[in-house]
Amino acid sequence: MNPKTHGVARFGSFYAGGRQIRISGQPVRTISFTQTAPYEYDPNGLFHIEQAYVQYFIPAEPRCALPLAMLHGGGMCGTMWEHTPDGRDGWAQAFVAQGFPVYIIDNVERGRAGWAPFPGVWPDAPIVRSAEEAWSLFRFGAAGDFQARRPFEGQRFPAEHLDTFIQTAVPRWLSNNDTAADTLCAALERIGPCLLMTHSHGGEVAFRAAARRPDLVRGMVAIEPSGFCRPGEVPALGASACLFVYGDYLDATPTWQMLTRRGIEFRDSLLRAGIEADWWELPRMGIRGNSHMLMMDDNSDELAQRVGEWLLQRY
Amino acid sequence: MNPKTHGVARFGSFYAGGRQIRISGQPVRTISFTQTAPYEYDPNGLFHIEQAYVQYFIPAEPRCALPLAMLHGGGMCGTMWEHTPDGRDGWAQAFVAQGFPVYIIDNVERGRAGWAPFPGVWPDAPIVRSAEEAWSLFRFGAAGDFQARRPFEGQRFPAEHLDTFIQTAVPRWLSNNDTAADTLCAALERIGPCLLMTHSHGGEVAFRAAARRPDLVRGMVAIEPSGFCRPGEVPALGASACLFVYGDYLDATPTWQMLTRRGIEFRDSLLRAGIEADWWELPRMGIRGNSHMLMMDDNSDELAQRVGEWLLQRY
């Protein structure tokens, strides 16, 4: 196979989960979709909300029988797996090239899943991530060094392309975590038994969904998860193995110090439940300089290869 | 090539266009992204809005030197080209299989392009399409037959899957048409000289962008466009040929009677400007029963083949 090709035999997409909703009592008004067509717009009627969008890429030469489903973190959608800010291919292509059938999920409210613009249906206002917040929370550099765009020493994230990176941000609702877990279960039903890879906020959504559907999630890769199972959910996990992957600079903020501690506690709870749980802090393995967005860092291909080998040794 | 494969050599995505915006003066508040992490959320800072998302699929065996860019209609995003409500492959796969490099665009505010949740930036409230509106406006059946789900006689749209179809709806802003044309130009710059296929509301956006960038749009396919060039823009079109494609039941509503008349007038203006402009009203060609969503109808593969042949004969 040409190394520049990804060798996709089939691709496509579907929607899963969510619910129908009826809107009534809103006034009809005359609008113009285009300069051509005045139109009586009736905002009432039947709609579908809270679905997930799932796009799949089936490799020409599969090496893993189980599909690999990828769930974005908070404030992002499936595009975070598709390209890096400096224009390289992302983990979607890297895992297809390793022979995984790859399913990219835009969960509730994100990207192509659409969202509900109906007053009161999602009670809170959406939030979206600024460049400043990404800079600090994703550990590109110290908060005080944002204006100068001076990243941490040895930083592997292509910080000079921060302006490109922030184009991937999409709004989110903090009230939708339970719905996100419900809808992820519906997406997993359509995907079938699989390996589930998550990033950041997606960790909480994925661990909770996996605990409810132990028949569907056979293994997990959690990239710097910011949330975990609820108490009592761990023993229900069907995954036979979980891999935790963390980048560098975890001491840089109180948030990441706390999240790392919580991650270790959760990993320990998996071990106690008899689940294989590997913990990769990349600096301890001699790999320094990775950010929270390690699937976009300059060694993203090498990391995808390592994670893929870990999975292929087990599944 | 296996007829069930799409033979994609490469796939990936990028963002294009839009602008940066600074938000200030909003109060900081404590939030929880997950159950794990209380967090000081600052809604102020630097953001990027009004970009387009572009996803590409490069066939293993290209037969056309020019990429084919596909622009969705109003209230939809790129997923409309990827699958049908009854679970068949869409036109994205059909055109890749014919050897076209396919670029699917989510333009401003739609799908993976994200949207701007900042008060006052887009002045109007978003609207979204109900099942009832889709039923009538997309000519699945008479408005009075929605409750009974009784489609027009001979209807080729899989109307029994209407509940699946409405999951593809995403919110839109009526005030963003100018921005959409600007951002489409930016996407076309990244794609390079191409063929541009549009649906419905995308027609107005695409014709206006094509008039501004005659160097980039070499040919056009307009599926039931609901808007066109502005007066004076036609002579600037660089496209050497345009194909207009219309389904059945155009007499069913005053809106479609009017849009068809406008389409004919616009086609005539192209002819006067020396541009080849073919007009396909499918019933006049013996193909009956197509809806406004003809890329999802039960003869979608046959229609994709016909349109592909029209393009390959010219480009």
Quick structural gist:
Chain A has 315 residues and is an alpha/beta fold. The first copy, chain A, is built from seven helices and twelve strands.
Walkthrough of the structure:
The structure is a homodimer of 315-residue chains. Chain A has 315 residues and is an alpha/beta fold. Chain A has two domains: 8-15 and 50-314, Alpha/Beta hydrolase fold, catalytic domain (Rossmann fold, 3-Layer(aba) Sandwich); 19-47, no CATH class. Chain A is 25% helix and 22% strand. The first copy, chain A, contains seven helices and twelve strands. Chain A has helices spanning 91-97, 131-137, 162-165, 177-191, 201-212, 254-272, 300-314; strands at 8-16, 19-23, 29-32, 38-41, 45-49, 52-59, 68-71, 102-106, 194-199, 217-223, 241-246, 276-281. In chain A, the strands form three sheets. The first copy, chain A, has an eight-stranded mixed β-sheet, with helices on both faces. The mean pLDDT of chain A is 95. The interface between A and B is large, with 83 and 83 residues.
Q: Spell out the helices and strands of chain A N to C.
A: EEEEEEEHEHHHEHEEHEH
How many β-strand stretches of chain A? 12
**Pairing-aware structural class of the strands and helices of chain A?**
alpha/beta
Q: Order of strands across the biggest sheet of chain A?
A: 1-6-8-7-9-10-11-12
Low-confidence stretches of chain A: none
**Count of individual domains of chain A:** 2
User: So what's the CATH class of the largest domain in chain A?
Assistant: Alpha Beta
The CATH superfamily label of the largest domain in chain A reads Alpha/Beta hydrolase fold, catalytic domain
